[in-house]
Amino acid sequence: MAATEATVPPRDPWxxxxxxxxxxxxxxxxxxxxxxxxxxxxxxxxPREVFRxxxxxxxxxxxxFGQVLYKATTLACTGLAVALGIRAGMFNIGAExxxxxxxxxxxxxxxGLPAGTPAALAVLxxxxxxxxxxxxxxxxxxxxxxxxxxxxxxxxIMMNFIVAALLNWLVATKVSVAESLHTPEIHAxxxxxxxxxxxxxxxxxxxxxxxxxxxxxxxxWWYLFRTRAGYELRAxxxxxxxxxxxxxxxxxxxxxxxxLSGALAGLGGVNYVLGYxxxxxxxxxxxxGYLGIAVALVGRxxxxxxxxxxxxxxxxxxxxxxxxxxxxKQMVDVxxxxxxxxxxxAVPEVQRMLRAVRGRLA
Amino acid sequence: xxxxIRASGIRKVFGDCVANRNASLEVATGEIHAVVGENxxxxxxLMRMIAGMYAPDAGTLEVNGRDVTGWSTREAIAAGVGMVHxxxxxxxxxxxxxxxxxxQEPRAGLQFDRAGAEAAVRxxxxxxxxxxxxxxxVADLTVGELQRVEILKVLFRGAKIxxxxxxTAVLSPPEVTELWKVLRALVAQGGTVVLITHxxxxxxxxxxxxxxMRAGETVGQTDTAGATPASIxxxxxxxxxRLAGDDHAEPPTANPQTADGRRQTEAKTADGRRQxxxxxxxxxxxxxxxxxxxxxxxxALTVASSRRPNEVDNLSFxxxxxxxxxxxxxxxxxxxxxxxxxxxxxxxxxxxxxxGGTDITGWTVRQRADAGxxxxxxxxxxxxxVLEYSIADDLILGLQHRxxxxxxxxxxxxxRNADERITQFDVRPASATTPARALxxxxxxxxxxxxxxxxxxFSVLLAVQPTRGVDVGAIEFxxxxxxxxxxxxxxxLLVSADLVEVLALSDRVxxxxxxxxxxxxxxxxxxxxxxxxxxxxxxxxxxxxGH
Amino acid sequence: xxxxxxALLVLVAVHLALLxxxxxxxxxxxxxxxxxxxxxxxxGGRGDKSFNDGAFLGAERAMKELGARVRFIEPGEGxxxxxxLRLLAAEGMDLVIGVGFIFSDDLTLxxxxxxxxxxxxxxxxxxIDANGKPVPPPDNLAALKFREEEGSFLVGALAALxxxxxKLGFVGGMDFPLIHKFEMGYRAGVQAVCPDCTVIxxxxxxxxxxxxxxxxxxxxxxxxxxxxxxxxxxxxxSTGLGVFEAARRLGKLxxxxxxxxxxxxxxxxxxxxxxGVDEAVFGAIRQVRDGSFRGGIFELGLKERGVNYIxxxxxxxxxxxEARERVEALRAEIIAGRITVPSTK
Lengths: 362, 547, 345
Fold this sequence. Notes:
The complex is a heterotrimer. Chain A is mostly helical. Chain A has a single domain (55-361), classed as Orthogonal Bundle (ABC transporter involved in vitamin B12 uptake, BtuC), CATH 1.10.3470. Chain A has helices at residues 14-42, 47-58, 62-87, 95-112, 119-148, 152-173, 209-226, 228-238, 240-245, 250-273, 288-298, 303-322, 329-346, 348-361. Chain A starts with 13 loop residues before the first helix and ends with a helix. Chain B is α/β, with parallel strands linked by helices. Chain B has a six-stranded mixed β-sheet with strand order 6-9-10-3-11-12, with helices on both faces. In chain B, strands 18-21-22-15-23-24 form a six-stranded mixed β-sheet, sandwiched between helices. Chain B has a four-stranded antiparallel β-sheet with strand order 2-1-4-5, covered by helices on one side. Chain C folds into two domains: 36-146, Response regulator (Rossmann fold, 3-Layer(aba) Sandwich), CATH 3.40.50; 148-274 and 311-335, Response regulator (Rossmann fold, 3-Layer(aba) Sandwich). Chain C contains ten helices and twelve strands. Chain C has a six-stranded parallel β-sheet with strand order 2-1-3-4-5-11, sandwiched between helices. In chain C, strands 7-6-8-9-10-12 form a six-stranded mixed β-sheet, with helices on both faces. Chains in contact: A-B, A-C. Chains A and C meet through helix 1, helix 2, helix 3, helix 6 and helix 12 of A and helix 1, strand 2, helix 3 and helix 4 of C.
């Protein structure tokens, strides 16, 4: 039989192995850059000047970089949430609502605790609340999906509206500060700013929640690739029929995954509520949940990739402010969209999804 | 002799995978030419290039003496080359005639000329002997009829050179016989047929010449007269192989009209082979088979599918330790649903399943597996393997709870388990980190079988299509494993659409038709000619029914 | 793989080449004297044809008349508001303006951090301390507030007087206290001239997106007009553009908000309840130039002409003389303090 079987191919040199996963997203980014150049020119501005401002306003100064880190923290959480869902074959579009409810829950606990609560305990309780809040928002679609096979795409989107309306009503009628869209400041549970340790970050919203995001990325990696639950989760995502054959309860895996996904997104709310403003504000991170989808896709649903992608989108978002003097903000929005489309179509996961859709149509 | 197809020095690469290297083929006008080779030998790729679906990276293609290298499907059809694919590509909601004329509909004024289309199709049916009612909806046809429609579709477009990719995979023995008649008639009318298959008995029966491919390369061509399944298999895998069927029968082409006769011969020799084997290392107490309490018993089981509420219809049987009970039948007669219900993948509507006397009807898949039920599933690509997983990870599918401590998987035990199984079952490449997707069909199946036979203590094994899409060399190995398990006292329920396989392995044989076990026979009384009528539904019910 | 590398190199080359194109007049370098002003709009604010654009108009006028140099920033999300203000303050602007109540906290924080920079907040919400007392803003921060309910009162009276229907419509953006001021003022104005009239009040939503949903606005507008309403007052940002479209389609009247919106649907805009955002912004810039700028809370009502309704050549034909006289009489009573307009539900 030896003659007919495939032999182990010789391993490629390291640079080629590295290139293979990196080349498509790099190409996509460059496509986005060229499209950006043309857009900038169409506004009668110099691409070099705009890109210079973009870099200066983000990575080239401590404040800007701090802002990038701050934005990346929220995006990393929602990106991880979406990535975990996709790994289990689910599209969690509800990160937006989960993020909001998580942030709100953290604020409520922070408000409820007495002012003298030890910081570590208070932060821990607020984190738990944020995770639980996110899970709660994901529990409804999770239960409907596991029990009735309802499409999580539709239910999570609808949950976004329900959560938004509910929180708005609560904030407007129950816990608001007059003439504002936010709750009173929390009494305990504030997460310190990075600037307290690194003064150069002064003024930026960057705070120690970033450590939570990094820890979550490591935890998600461990969960996905080193635990039995992760093994089962990925099997469900790749081939639900094989998972079922392997004695895995597919419905329960979906349910569990959506709860965890919601908790990840919910923890993202801490960044604003505990780390930045110390209160919950209506629409505090509007769009970060949806952008999490892009972060997950560009990060190829890998926790490490998600961290990198969250930095990328955070840079674009912060850069948008810096270049606002020369070009309208919408230009950066278009650029973000081009990055998403270009990178997303270049990654195999999305190609597989597109093929599946095409197959269903054919 | 004029040459219909000549391919030389063909090379085709997909990404990192070399599908064809230095492949060649010469088909004479007016012959039935078989192309054989193991799965992944590059047969289909070569044929698709001839049909214009891909362009070769190197080499030349000639059809009827004209250089057509790199032509398109449109050009190929225009030149009279048509391919019938493994998977049917028909519109189920349209009629046969509508499917055939799709894209070149005859018109009467502005309207579709239905009568004209049906008449044209009927004429073609008459001429070729492919009998299908052109007015019937494709959704209502049997698999054999679908195949005929696929062939008609190609012929309707004027194909003179017909390429068939594994046409018998889904057919019952009488339908296969029917197909051979049609192909012979086509050749008699001046057509040329290229037949891809890896069933050697078919090759011997129907072809005039044989081209053998291995690992993307053409390794030889021979006249069928004088070839035996053993000699062809040797060319295919490059060494001696034992075959499930006959390996010393005279070439059946000597008597091509009586397929049934040939099969009877084969069945007998299969028995003979087993006796031979019995004298060697596979000795087992045959006398015990059929005695003792049942390891698996299915009682009045009814299972629904999305199509009908009684896909499995009030079915009962038992499998005893040390016995292989083989269920034959044309696919789609409830076998899939039966197995899924036994394995816990599909709920039973009524009736019960018992494992060693314990009622497991409501149990989960994992509970059943842990109670000693192993399962080689019908479709390893869909169920048996997570294709993106490494061999090591796939070797613990369904056993993952035994390879974890607390939340975490125990990686080194998984690795050791993989190394052990890979060695035991000779999985190639012998690298635990290789994704299952990258393996050949035979090696994928070895991974499944290694896991199901060695991964847990089991008393009952469900083996469904255990050698489908598996190369000849691996078939032999898998059959040996199943016999060894039987000899070790396991109860095996074998379901296969391949009658030869069922006859070669089973101690008792049943036939499923329309969701019922229409007949059950001891092996000695079963043969292709006896079972054939039951498989097609020509015989139903009667005294043999049930068990 | 090789193809991809080639594509990559080509893209790098194209990108580098494009970087060196320098269009004429690309970089605007600030020169000359005059005040430097930075304005941060609300999220999604620019182009709302009312509130944010009002600020823009005031700034434009200041550029023309006062030689001010103005930079605008449109934030993308919550944390961008502070970032935008900070960016401008750090650049050493003379005056930094945040447009919208939502900037209140950020402005307070930055005014303390940059005492040398002057700040102004349009619709600035004054914080309340634990004892229920308002917290005065820092000295370098001017809180520009409007008594929208007073202007809404007048357009409510006007709508009831010329509407020829006992039913009047109101479309709000987001359902929350700031917009309730408009609704309550409007209702009171209607009741003042027509006690048996009813007001159908609806809101486009409960999130800030409700200010950016013209489709929803049109839906609400059409349904109200079909219920017999002849005049709708909207306080809903760009959602109101949909209300105007509904008015145009059915030949009814609508009342604009914040800025004169007559141009959005000429002939179908009865009037607009204008907030003097442009005037307030222009005034703040002028004060900074004159050196007369001071911090504090400034409430701008009818008396201060911080709110008003439009009655000019465009729409004069839509307003009858009696109606005009009646509304002007009401204005006098409010200014005199004889009528107190409610502002909360």
